[in-house]
Amino acid sequence: MTRGEGLARWFERRAIAVLGVATALVLAVLFYYPVLTVFADAVRLGGAWNFEVAREVLTDPFYFGVFAPLFDGDLTAVSEIAADQPLGLVGFTAYQALLSTIASVALGLPGAYVLARYEFPGRRTIRSLTILPFVLPSIMVAIGFYAFFGANGPVNDLLAALGVGRLSMLGTLEAIVVAHAFYNAPLVTRVTTAAWESVDARMVETARSLGANPWRAFRDVLVPQLLPAVLTGALLTFVFTFMSFPIVLALGGFQLATVEVWVFSLVQQLDYAEAATLAVVETVVSLALTYAYLTYESRQSANSRAANPPPRKRFFPSVSADAGSLIAGLERAAILAYATVAAVVFVGPIASMVVESVTGPNGLTLQYYRFLVQRQVEGASFQTLPGVAVRNSLLFGAATLLVALPMGVTVSVLTARGGRWERLADTAAMAPLAVSGVVVGLGMLRGLVFGVELFGHRVQVDGPVAIVAAHAVAAYPFVVRNVSPLLGGVDRSVVESARALGATRVRALLDVELPLVAAGVAAGAAFAFAISIGEFDSTVILATGSSSYTMPVAVERYIGNRTLGPATAMGTVLLAVTSLSFVVIDRLGGRWEV
Amino acid sequence: MERRTFLKHGTAATLVGLAGCTGGDEQGTTTGSDTTTADETTTEGSETTTEATDETTTDETTTEQDLSGTLTVATYSSFVDAPSSSPGPWLKEAFEERHPDVTVEWATPDNEMNYYLQRAQQGVDIEADMFVGVNVDHLIRIDDELGDRQLFEPGASPLDNYGHVKEDLKFDPQQRAIPYDTGYISLVYDGNEADDPETFDALTTDEYAGDLIVQNARTAATGRAFLLWTIHNQGEENYLDYWEQLVDNDVTILGSWDDAYTAWENGEAPMVVSYSTDQVYANRYDQDLSKHQVGFLDGEGYANPEGMAKFADSDNDDLVAAFMDFVLSAEAQGEIAVRNVQFPATDWADLPAEFEEYAQVPDQPVTFTYEELKGNVDEWVDQWARQIVGGS
Fold first, then answer.
1. Which residue of A3, A155, A505, B190 has the lowest C-beta tally within 10 Å?
2. Is the backbone of residue A526 left (phi > 0), alpha (psi -120 to 50) or beta?
3. With an 8 Å Cβ cutoff, are A146 and B341 in contact?
4. ipTM of the predicted structure?
5. Are B182 and B303 in contact (CB under 8 A)?
6. In chain A, what are the domains?
7. What is the reported pTM?
């Protein structure tokens, strides 16, 4: 054996451990260190411990409603506050997140059913494009929503024509909930589709052959296999909408402010102590839910199975087939109804964005695209060039995918078969999703961009490598959440026989386990790419003073005084580039899928 | 008005007043308001000695010097990057044309002023020489956060053109921030959908129920200006009651000017808080002017001047002064006004007829001074925010 082969074997044996250490290092530098320096502001003042601000926040009814007197140990005030502001800012934020989660699951689940169970032309492309809304900058979504659902939009025109009367979406909670569903229902769909494509149909058949009717087979056999994925989607949706911020202010308005809106304005005023306290509260709520969910998940995955989905039904059956069945006909009608709703919620606003990009004050125009071309050709180096933004986004997206996949799979493997400690580690690994984006940005600015004094040198972390690492940190939890539930369901005996035959742990993982959970890995990869493309908070901060800006950053910078045209054109470019990328990623991933 | 033609020649004159002679090797002699300097310019650690040449312009004798080196100017990103209307690229090009050995570099960190304030808080050095886009809120925040430590230093005395800055726009008692433009916050309304409300009180009546979109005073400059305007008009004791009536009358408070203007353009409501220069844009983009009517309330408009200031850490005194003087020159004042669509801060700007015709000035511009805001503004805004959010 040559030395090179020896090294390779050494690495193969320890690959999981090495990757685990590398993941921990990246997390420590790009996430835990910057975030903890900000969280420390909640209880540190001028180098000494100080719990005054934290106490004030926790006992303030404005934030905690009826909980504030409970935290204060003063129960006499409860009834008065209950009448005045029962929920408080935190309670209201949780309430709108709950509504948004319900709406997202209601809208996302049927989509998963259709995509997983039916075969129709364009199915794979639609599946690839489901997470598109996820990457759209909030200003684009706001523009799309106003154009489509707004006072003069096609929806209201139709309602007026039907004699229902016009609806005003401006400043309503409904507008926020629908916008949140626009962002997050696709997430529910994508996660659940991956699980549905990995179910073991033989178990359903067994149940049926043992006399169970279709409904019981569905409830007792299929639902337990799908529920973890559905709850994962619901959990992620809740966590995201709990910390929602720009879209709330763009559509709902300040009266419907969330905690994150408050954190943002406190940070703007450099009021770090109060902002950090609120951010810690957000994180505690999100992580507590995550832990509760993981406890549930670990109980579910005990039953092992193999991915063996039932064959897809054809949506357009040949005439001779089951065309006469009443139930099948009703199901098709329901699916068409659902498709209409999905078209209104998703296609409507997106199409409106595109229309806005070619609509000037006096009708159709290409002037905004001409601006992009002109800026690319003539723009100065200190300006934002569209081509550079596209190139950066694609490079960072691909690099993020390559970094986040191993990170996520490693964490999944290390925390699989979770006892309590693994669950805690898994929860901690989810933290990047559970920390306020504003706080992560502030931590990165102070801790990484400004640099740290080490051995007499100021060490700074910024530029492209830092951006990719930051994107990977934000993205890998999606890989974990897509892969873990499926990995937990893989039959252990298969892996053990591979190991008994001399395969290293990583070889068994690559050759045996991952192919079995390929649908989850592919979904995780698509999410990783999407997160990188859509990420804004840390990108703008780490790109300071360099030309490492991405497409969403360009969209923001092209917002002109009184003209959103160039921004919508850039947003449409983002839409096109991202759509194409998703299709390509899915096709590449598809070769590997079973 | 006297035009100083020397600005059109290759180099700009730099008048170095006494306070400006802090650059170490410089020496200057002052005669009345006219200054003759024969000096060395220190840039980036390397010394460049330039010969002074005399040139007589109009009634004053100035010594021109060839400046050299790199001037890093920090600003907000739309000043250099927004489509069609950013004055930044023009300023760089025109200034470098006058000073071939000078390079102007723009720095546009995402956190804008807070970026530099946070650097100063953390004890990290500032890599820029000056900031363009300082307002009175920034100054108060800087003074509250840094105390006696200075982020900016007074920069008016070496400036030749400072005398042209309008007196009522000078918003910094310490003369760190030199005003270069101003906007007047007003209402912009669709004349086909609503009449000019004309008074603050009218906004709380049934006729205008649900008609007004404003911005969040905590995060948007226009929203903050509008809130301050209501405090100025209604009084410190009454503004919260006034806002309660506005909320009862279904006012919408969106996050940023973009959010609000997008909603307004889509016809969600007929009135929005914006700038009194709105018709300049509308006319430029051939929009229907009847949809872009400017309304001043009680004859007032809230003035929001913007200034530029030199970072105290910068040693580039001469370059900063030359650039500031250039920004205050008649030509640049006209260009900035047109490109930024704001009013010039000086009395001598070359404004095109388009601007004179469509940019509207309130009968009574109002604003709070630095002294009036200091110690009050945070409390005013916080109470407002808690009332708005807590009341929902």
1. A3
2. alpha
3. no
4. 0.87
5. yes
6. 3-50+87-592 (1.10.3720.10), 51-86 (no CATH)
7. 0.87
